[in-house]
Amino acid sequence: MRFGKRLWITPSGYTPPDPSGVNILLDPGLAFGTGTHPTTAMCLRWLDAHPPEGLDLIDFGCGSGILAIAAACLGARHVIAVDTDPQALIATRDNARKNQVEARIEPCLPDQCPSAQVPLLLANILAGPLMELAPQLSARVQSSGHIVLSGILAEQAEAVINCYRSRFDIQISEQQADWVCLSGVRH
User: Fold this and answer.
1) Three-point CA angle 13, 15, 20, nearest 5°
2) Is the pLDDT of residue 31 over 70?
3) What are the E-state strand segments in the chain?
4) What angle do CA 32, 33, 38 make, to 5 degrees?
5) Residue 76 φ then ψ, to 5°
6) Could you say which of 43, 65, 131, 139 is the most buried, measured as most Cβ atoms within 10 Å of its Cβ?
7) What gap in Å lies between CA 132 and CA 159, rounded to an integer?
8) Is the C-alpha dihedral spanning 66, 144, 139, 133 positive or negative?
9) Which whole number is the average pLDDT over 97-103?
10) pTM of the prediction?
11) Which residue has the higher pLDDT, 147 or 33?
């Protein structure tokens, strides 16, 4: 499947359809994230349109590692891939290895996550946890840094925006079916 102009997700064992594209081989294992869900697809398109070349970033709720790997393949220097599920961290490590970006991806549980601020934070989880974690996630983004939030139903968007508005100029960047992706810049 293609996301944006040049980012492709291909199951392992298949030949990537565009040799000149950014091709990611992915097997989700027991973790969430193949690119088929609108929330993941919107985050992948955001990354394709805003390549994180040379940036450090956090993928909070990494699941299969799809966003962390896409970021690394699009030039991110270092990605902290965070998830509460140990199976997700295993899938992230395995998929990072398949894509030869394991040296730039650091899978970890939330309590093991390095405390540095980053210029980009992605979180594709659900609206409830996004609202609950707003202070912690916001604090991880440096001044003028970007935040991308997904896993939000359209009717939940305003509530999530209100949780981040004090620190970010944030708005809906895309809607697909009943789901939205928010993006913002830290004041």
Assistant:
1) 140
2) no
3) 2-3, 7-11, 22-26, 56-60, 78-82, 105-108, 118-124, 141-153, 168-176, 179-186
4) 115
5) -60, 140
6) 65
7) 11
8) negative
9) 96
10) 0.94
11) 147
